[in-house]
Amino acid sequence: MAKAEDKTVLVVDDEPNVRQYLQTILEDAGFQVETAGDGEEALEMIQARPPDFISLDLVMPRKSGRKLLHELKKNKEWARIPVLIVTAHARDEMGESDLDALLEDRAMLGPGGYLEKPIKPESYVHCVQDALGIEETPVKESKVSLRDELQTKLSQADPDALRRALDALRNG
Questions:
Q1: Contact yes or no for 54/82 (Cβ under 8 A)
Q2: pLDDT, tens digit, 9 for 90 and up, residues 14-38
Q3: How buried is residue 149: exposed, middle or buried, by Cβ count under 10 Å (0-12/13-18/19+)?
Q4: What is the pTM (predicted TM-score) of this model?
Q5: Residues 36-72 as b or e (16 or more Cβ within 10 Å = b)
Q6: For 126, what's the count of Cα atoms within 13 Å in the CB-facing half-sphere?
Protein backbone atom coordinates (compact mmCIF):
# COMPACT_ATOMS: atom_id res chain seq x y z
CA MET A 1 0.00 0.00 0.00
CA ALA A 2 1.18 3.53 -0.81
CA LYS A 3 2.38 5.79 1.99
CA ALA A 4 1.62 9.49 2.37
CA GLU A 5 5.28 10.37 2.91
CA ASP A 6 6.10 8.94 -0.53
CA LYS A 7 3.57 11.18 -2.30
CA THR A 8 3.86 14.81 -3.36
CA VAL A 9 0.79 17.04 -3.48
CA LEU A 10 0.80 20.34 -5.34
CA VAL A 11 -1.52 22.89 -3.71
CA VAL A 12 -2.52 25.65 -6.15
CA ASP A 13 -4.38 28.64 -4.68
CA ASP A 14 -3.99 32.40 -5.13
CA GLU A 15 -4.72 33.13 -1.46
CA PRO A 16 -1.55 32.71 0.64
CA ASN A 17 -3.43 31.91 3.86
CA VAL A 18 -5.46 29.19 2.12
CA ARG A 19 -2.29 27.71 0.57
CA GLN A 20 -0.65 27.62 4.00
CA TYR A 21 -3.74 26.09 5.62
CA LEU A 22 -4.01 23.32 3.02
CA GLN A 23 -0.26 22.73 3.11
CA THR A 24 -0.33 22.33 6.90
CA ILE A 25 -3.26 19.89 6.75
CA LEU A 26 -1.46 17.73 4.19
CA GLU A 27 1.91 17.87 5.95
CA ASP A 28 0.22 16.85 9.21
CA ALA A 29 -1.15 13.84 7.32
CA GLY A 30 2.39 12.95 6.21
CA PHE A 31 2.44 14.21 2.60
CA GLN A 32 5.24 16.08 0.85
CA VAL A 33 3.71 19.39 -0.25
CA GLU A 34 4.61 22.01 -2.83
CA THR A 35 2.59 25.18 -3.41
CA ALA A 36 1.86 27.54 -6.28
CA GLY A 37 0.03 30.88 -6.29
CA ASP A 38 -1.65 30.52 -9.68
CA GLY A 39 -2.03 28.25 -12.70
CA GLU A 40 1.04 29.63 -14.51
CA GLU A 41 3.34 28.94 -11.56
CA ALA A 42 1.76 25.51 -11.12
CA LEU A 43 2.29 24.61 -14.78
CA GLU A 44 5.99 25.49 -14.49
CA MET A 45 6.30 23.28 -11.41
CA ILE A 46 4.45 20.41 -13.10
CA GLN A 47 6.73 20.67 -16.13
CA ALA A 48 9.78 20.47 -13.87
CA ARG A 49 8.49 17.65 -11.66
CA PRO A 50 4.93 16.28 -11.93
CA PRO A 51 3.30 15.77 -8.52
CA ASP A 52 1.28 12.72 -7.51
CA PHE A 53 -1.83 14.81 -6.78
CA ILE A 54 -3.03 18.37 -7.42
CA SER A 55 -5.29 20.42 -5.14
CA LEU A 56 -6.56 23.19 -7.41
CA ASP A 57 -8.40 26.45 -6.76
CA LEU A 58 -10.88 27.27 -9.50
CA VAL A 59 -10.77 31.08 -9.65
CA MET A 60 -7.24 32.55 -9.87
CA PRO A 61 -5.43 35.30 -11.77
CA ARG A 62 -3.12 34.65 -14.76
CA LYS A 63 -4.32 31.08 -15.36
CA SER A 64 -7.52 29.78 -13.77
CA GLY A 65 -7.98 26.29 -12.42
CA ARG A 66 -10.13 25.42 -15.43
CA LYS A 67 -7.45 26.54 -17.89
CA LEU A 68 -4.72 24.68 -16.01
CA LEU A 69 -6.82 21.53 -15.95
CA HIS A 70 -7.28 21.71 -19.71
CA GLU A 71 -3.49 22.12 -20.11
CA LEU A 72 -2.99 19.00 -18.00
CA LYS A 73 -5.42 16.99 -20.12
CA LYS A 74 -3.42 17.79 -23.28
CA ASN A 75 -0.38 15.93 -21.89
CA LYS A 76 -0.61 12.13 -21.67
CA GLU A 77 1.51 11.90 -18.49
CA TRP A 78 -0.11 14.83 -16.67
CA ALA A 79 -3.63 13.73 -17.58
CA ARG A 80 -3.27 10.83 -15.12
CA ILE A 81 -2.58 13.08 -12.12
CA PRO A 82 -5.62 13.10 -9.81
CA VAL A 83 -7.00 16.61 -9.35
CA LEU A 84 -9.31 17.90 -6.65
CA ILE A 85 -10.92 21.31 -7.16
CA VAL A 86 -11.06 23.24 -3.87
CA THR A 87 -13.15 26.36 -4.39
CA ALA A 88 -15.28 28.97 -2.67
CA HIS A 89 -16.97 29.74 -6.00
CA ALA A 90 -18.86 26.52 -6.75
CA ARG A 91 -22.21 28.30 -6.53
CA ASP A 92 -21.53 31.86 -7.66
CA GLU A 93 -21.09 33.60 -10.99
CA MET A 94 -17.29 33.61 -10.65
CA GLY A 95 -16.90 29.85 -10.71
CA GLU A 96 -20.21 28.03 -11.12
CA SER A 97 -20.12 27.86 -14.93
CA ASP A 98 -16.46 26.74 -14.93
CA LEU A 99 -17.16 24.02 -12.38
CA ASP A 100 -20.29 22.86 -14.20
CA ALA A 101 -18.35 22.65 -17.47
CA LEU A 102 -15.55 20.64 -15.84
CA LEU A 103 -17.98 18.22 -14.23
CA GLU A 104 -19.91 17.75 -17.49
CA ASP A 105 -16.70 17.17 -19.45
CA ARG A 106 -15.55 14.69 -16.82
CA ALA A 107 -12.24 16.52 -17.01
CA MET A 108 -11.37 15.94 -13.37
CA LEU A 109 -9.91 12.81 -11.90
CA GLY A 110 -10.25 11.66 -8.32
CA PRO A 111 -13.07 11.08 -5.88
CA GLY A 112 -15.78 13.65 -5.55
CA GLY A 113 -14.29 16.07 -8.05
CA TYR A 114 -14.43 19.11 -5.80
CA LEU A 115 -14.75 20.43 -2.25
CA GLU A 116 -16.27 23.77 -1.31
CA LYS A 117 -14.42 26.17 0.97
CA PRO A 118 -14.32 26.31 3.87
CA ILE A 119 -13.22 22.72 3.92
CA LYS A 120 -12.94 20.31 6.80
CA PRO A 121 -9.42 18.96 7.14
CA GLU A 122 -10.64 15.36 7.53
CA SER A 123 -12.63 15.51 4.28
CA TYR A 124 -9.73 17.09 2.43
CA VAL A 125 -7.17 14.55 3.61
CA HIS A 126 -9.59 11.69 2.95
CA CYS A 127 -10.06 12.79 -0.68
CA VAL A 128 -6.29 12.90 -1.24
CA GLN A 129 -5.69 9.58 0.53
CA ASP A 130 -8.51 7.89 -1.36
CA ALA A 131 -7.31 9.12 -4.77
CA LEU A 132 -3.77 7.94 -4.05
CA GLY A 133 -4.72 4.60 -2.50
CA ILE A 134 -3.40 5.49 0.93
CA GLU A 135 -4.93 3.94 4.02
CA GLU A 136 -6.15 6.49 6.53
CA THR A 137 -4.06 6.82 9.67
CA PRO A 138 -6.13 7.64 12.79
CA VAL A 139 -3.21 9.23 14.66
CA LYS A 140 -2.59 11.75 11.91
CA GLU A 141 -6.30 12.35 11.45
CA SER A 142 -6.64 13.23 15.13
CA LYS A 143 -3.73 15.68 14.81
CA VAL A 144 -5.54 17.37 11.91
CA SER A 145 -8.77 17.37 13.95
CA LEU A 146 -7.06 18.99 16.93
CA ARG A 147 -5.59 21.72 14.75
CA ASP A 148 -9.00 22.39 13.16
CA GLU A 149 -10.71 22.49 16.57
CA LEU A 150 -8.07 24.89 17.89
CA GLN A 151 -8.51 27.21 14.91
CA THR A 152 -12.28 27.20 15.40
CA LYS A 153 -11.96 27.96 19.13
CA LEU A 154 -9.43 30.74 18.46
CA SER A 155 -11.72 32.42 15.94
CA GLN A 156 -14.54 32.44 18.51
CA ALA A 157 -12.47 33.40 21.56
CA ASP A 158 -12.68 36.69 23.43
CA PRO A 159 -9.64 38.86 22.48
CA ASP A 160 -8.97 39.77 26.14
CA ALA A 161 -8.97 36.12 27.15
CA LEU A 162 -6.55 35.36 24.32
CA ARG A 163 -4.22 38.15 25.48
CA ARG A 164 -4.26 36.82 29.05
CA ALA A 165 -3.57 33.27 27.83
CA LEU A 166 -0.71 34.47 25.61
CA ASP A 167 0.78 36.51 28.46
CA ALA A 168 0.59 33.45 30.74
CA LEU A 169 2.40 31.34 28.12
CA ARG A 170 5.09 33.99 27.65
CA ASN A 171 5.71 34.26 31.37
CA GLY A 172 5.83 30.46 31.69
A1: yes
A2: 999 999 999 999 999 999 999 999 9
A3: exposed
A4: 0.71
A5: bbbbbbbbebbeeebbbbbbbbbbbeebbbbebbebb
A6: 12
